[in-house]
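User: I'll paste a sequence; please echo it back and then give the predicted structure.

Assistant: Echoing your sequence first, then the prediction.
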Amino acid sequence: MKVRPWGVTVLAVLGFVNVAAYVALLALSIGSMPTLRTLLEAISPGGAGPAKMHLGMGKLLPVYYAAMAGVTTAFAWGFWRLWNWVRIVALLMIVISLIATVPAAVSVIRSGEAGAIAALVARVGLSFLIGWYLVTAKVRDAFRKRALDAGSQTGLEDSTVQDAS
């Protein structure tokens, strides 16, 4: 039996919750755009949230939410199944996100809005925390063990080991 680290289980479960959120946003984008606009503006203090970008997509917004529900499902399932490619892509996405945060951080800090600054600090802090967690030896080894177990189940064992008798 594979042992999944508790933090990876938490990431997988949060991923599945995120899928449900994208499906709800998809439904709102199709059925009630004014409600979606109000929701997005409410979770975007001082412009530090998704409202501007999402509302700027216009008629493509339902397509975006459907695509993100699919991608997020793949990530959540990948964390659940300990697929190492998901861990690596997540780490790359964290790096890209942190780099992209730099220009936004300047305008958020200049705005002086406490909610926007708190959201920025939370985003950066969580990114570093999750990134650090995904590179710890225990987590890295769990993903690698899963890959090795999958290889041995498909007959890809190391062919250099020979019987000494």
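The chain has a mean pLDDT of 85. Residues 6-150 form one domain.
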